[in-house]
Amino acid sequence: xxxILHSDYGALALRVFLGLLLIMASIEKxxxxxxxxxxxxxxxxxxxFAVMGVATVLPWIELLSGLFLLIGILxxxxxxxxxxxxxxxxxxxxxALMRGLDILCGCxxxxxxxxxxxxxxxxxxxxxxxxxxxxxxxxxxxxSLQRYLTESMAGE
Length: 156
Hints:
By secondary structure, the protein is mostly helical. The chain is built from seven helices and no strands. The chain has one domain. The model has no long low-confidence stretch (mean pLDDT 89).
């Protein structure tokens, strides 16, 4: 495990994977916030007045965090934010399952034929949470724009 935490190539692969996944997940939600608001409302966790705000802001957080991971800026903060989001998603899905709700996930697509919530989504998000935590803990920054900029400024 220690080798993975300090591997520049491993950290780059995790950043690219998580970054692209979050960017992909955000695009349709940004394009159609009304449909995403319906998905958010289906979880029955937020008061009606908060649903549209969450549905509007959340995809932009996913997009920016994904972009930051991809290019290697604010990696720790982005990975921490992503990990927190995954934890919230896990709790929301668990809550919906425990209340017997049979709803669409709203994770990657808003298509009505897409996957519904279930234990597979809990496992998937737990894996993504673990990857986010690995990036938070990792000290590997060789392939990041932030490292390049920091070294360029120090060399002036």
